[in-house]
Fold these 2 entries.
Entry 1:
Amino acid sequence: MAKLRGRGYASVNYPTGMNLGGDPSQALIHSTTTGTFVVSLSSVDLGQGIKTIAAQCAAETLGLPYGNIIVDTADTDTGPHCMGTFASRGTHRVGNAVIMAAAEAREVMLEVAAEELEVDAADLETDGTGFIQVRGADEKRIHITDLALAAHFEHGRTISGRGIFLKEKNEPVPETGEMDPDSCQAHACTVAVVEVDDETGVVEVLELHNAYEMGRALNPAMAAQQVEGGAWMGMSHALFEATEPYYPARDHGPRDFSEYLMPTAADIPVQRSVILERPAANGPFGAKGIGEMTANAPIPAIGNAIFDACGVRLDSMPFTPEKVLRGLDELRGLDELGDASERAHAPATGHERP
Amino acid sequence: MNHRVNPIDKSYFAGERRDGDFTVIGSVVQRSDVLGHVTGRTEFFEDLALPDMLHLKMYRSERHHARISGLDVTEALAVPGVVRVLTHADIPNNLYTPLKLIGVGPDDEPILAEDTVRYLGDPICAVIAETEAAAYEGVSRVRVDYTDLPAVFDVEEALAEGAPLVNEYQGQNHFIYEGHHCRRIRFGDVDKAFAEADHVFEWRYQSAPIEQAPAETTGCVVVPQADGRLRVHSDTQACFFTLDNTALILETPFNKLRVVGGTVGGGFGGKVDVVVEPVACVGAMLTGRPVKFVYTRYEEMQVSSPRAAERIYIKDAVMNDGRITGRKVTLYVDAGAYARHSPYGTTKAAAHLPGPYSIPNVWADCHCVFTNRTPSSAMRGFGVTIGDFALETQMDRIARELGMDPLRLRLINAYRDGDMKAHRKIAEGTALVEVIQKAAEMVGHELPDAYRRMSSTHREGR
């Protein structure tokens, strides 16, 4: 009995957004008299971080610090329409809408600053710390806190903006499947290293190596969170999860987390990930959506690694110890009771890596 | 701030990057919600505790497929603390389908069962009580007489002649796509490709339903307002989608509802369906009091729509040099008893075929099939995750059969800018070649020069 090690590969792409009925999201932005900008949305943060990304997009476009942005979201009385958080669309749709709204607000901000400083708005720039200043003469400047107050009480202007992103409705052609469902594609390649215990059938994932192309990582720490969290989910799908373990039989359905097994901290493999960026022409600062795809490549990579390790080809998920052992028995020419059958004998190991 | 980042290799696509002088984008800023999450101070919908709040619990079908021949709620109503029991007669517009908002029909799912249940867990009546304990006690006293009907659980058996009809509103055990029995892809001529191929490989793949498993289960608290409106605190993934669907079910003007949410303890697709808000709203309207309806973990795992099980057959035409010249895919998505979002997921699955490869001849029939099980619906990677399992296992098998390096096989077939995909969209912004090259480098998997020089922006010799 031995622990057999193997390596497997998988490469995938994934669409950003999926359009059937037209796919819009809106954003509104306005400055309070304190120079803080409120981004109003109805988008939902599931934990993936859309509130943070929306604030980053607004801050970058306005040329103001991240701390000057408040995101107020998900009240249908106060936030403009969003289709929802699904289809890896949030960063792309909402990011674009926020950029459009913030660009409009920035234009007003610069106009008011030009009046206040008695200069041409085209000569103004933001310094990223809160000042609007004359390009090349930065002693002539005003802070957003003072400007916002002046806009309201002296100039009678609202520093505000409206934004929307719409992917228009596209109907598939029923005969051929011709369609334009998405906005761009992100890419990934995963290499999994596993160890298979040929006595128990237990598979341990030792390493996951990921290369991701995501257009642009707007917040690299949150990108890492998506890549690594998704890899965990993919590993969990690969090895553990099913609400109907003997599908299509309906029996033995798990009722809680003591019966529905998922990996815990001790099961998490070493992960090494590298990000590539090929900015998407239609993405916010080039970003593509990776919220969903990060669970995908690890599954076949692990399955292919199991084959590499022990010669068992698993064509049904999840890859439970029972399936691994049945596969090993078949390779050894053993039947269900563990007796040698007359079927062809095949070694459990010895698969050459190409 | 201590944080983990993955390195960004900017040597790839250097000519296309316009990094400019970003001040916030590309930087690590702390997640705006993280301190609240890790200190337990973030407010979720369940943190709303109102003094006069009622609790709703569902009595659900104990059969896979049955006629309801009798329903008796007398004993449930007699439980101290039980205020009301809702049945289908209380729901203004009891029949719906969530994608009707974008023109997908027919309505095929009752909010509360009328005369038939179609899966184990189909909701039949809702017990509303002063306490959770009283609501559970009420549920345990509901009496239903069932007359069992034949049930079908396997997608191919469901499509066979003579199979029991799962959902009479659909009329057959599959969703109809504009007059077709499935979502089709027809690109090139696969039969010619098979006839001319050096090898033809065909394998079958299968998955089982998977639970989204959010930390926070699906739920809502509905609070009647002084002005007659309803404020719905929900962990939905889509506030307006929930609002619009709920208003249609309640037959009220849309502006009678206000959905408040946006801070959710994990969704993974499981909170896109509209399964708690409508009945909780009816309860709040009929009692004039706040009503809370939140799924138990059991309901989340066995009743709330999981990722669909899929069965996939892939047949490939392959040349000795590794080029895949034809790919035929037959996909069966197990939608369970009701459509929910499965017609959309099946179309998304079709658009993803044949994977990230340029294959000149592609044929796909993607069936959205009804069976007598918990309806499946959206989950992270909707329509794609299981397809990728099948496609990438298929690629590994082909490489093994040909004795080829599995990465070189993928590089030879990788799609590039300008290629027409099977759904007749021209590929742009592709980067499959580069992620494979990078992954190979990361693990010391050597590729010959010709493969390292490949690029997504152009094809060799073109």
Note: DSSP finds 13 helices and 17 strands in chain B.
Entry 2:
Amino acid sequence: MMSIRQFAKHLVVLVGLTALPMLSNAGELGPVPPKAKANASDTTKCVEPIGEMRKNHMEFLLHKRDETMREGVRTKQHSLTECIACHVTPNDKGEYARFGDDEHFCSSCHNYAAVNVDCFDCHSDLPEDASNKLRSSKNPHQNMTEGGKK
Amino acid sequence: MSNSEQTNNYRRKFLAQSAAVAGLAIAPGIILNQVAHTKADADKVTDATRWGMLIDTNKCNKGCTDCVTACKTENAWGMGETHSSKEQQAQWIRKVTITDKQTGHVQSLPLMCQHCETAPCVDVCPTGASMKRADGIVQVDKHICIGCRYCMMACPYKARSFVHEKIELQKPTAPRGIGTVESCNMCAHRVDKGENPACVEACSKAEHGAMIFGDLKDANSAISIELKKHGGEQIRADLGLNTGVRYQGL
């Protein structure tokens, strides 16, 4: 049988081993989403209180998508396009992270929490000017080609 | 209804009508259809409007594909689908050339979703994804589209496409993605802002002016005036779909 002393030794080693990765990651527990371009207004940071956004952003988006899609409501509050325009920002080199990268605003948390979203199967993961620029660099002759069957 | 009540009703109606006439007389310079269509961002679309398009095939230039190009640029399709065959690639609008074998007369016209009042694609959709907005715009709600393609089979105009491969770098105003069906939505995002669809704008920019966009329910809109004066045909009118897109010179 293990003596109390031996047990204590093992315990110290065990605690030490589990603490190692935490220590090396000191100050960066959990995901680190990039900063948004600007505050939503002088008094509020985002379009809803931050805690509310963290918890319920999917509900806001779901509600807004039906209003916009089916009833033509085009307000900016809770619009995915506006989220992307403000939250997806370039790095120091002017490059944009894409959805799936840990540096992308949405995937920074979604990767961490291992929650899959399929928003970006259809929606653009970049602000409009950034995706326009990338699109034209990928296909400079897009306006001259005639796709599809004539 | 008593006699006095009836008299009151007549008076009310008369007053309302004379007020309307006075309103017209006050501002004769204002184009009424523009005033009627100013929609605030927060407003929902209503069935007081029915968007439509009138295409004059005699004005449509045979070699010109500006409307198709404008649609591609506006909605970011027609590029990048490298694994799909030509038949599989998306096509929201196309130019069609018709030749009369008897006379040799050749006509050219753009063909896209005809925005039917009683749309077969809406009828057959098992999920409600294929839908008609209150203002007559027929479109696919890709959030609930399961990609069964019944609507593509039901459409007599071959107006819909299925996206076969992963798409990226979409326009924020035109989400497109694998496994869903898509088609012309009359540039709903532009129409909601009070602008013309991209194809119509391109046609007038090219100085062909073969396409008119407007409200079919507004008797004073350019499209209604032209339709009343010269008429407009539906393609496959025999199906009784009451299309929102009409053609002249067919």
Note: Residues 26-36 of chain B have pLDDT under 50 and may be disordered.
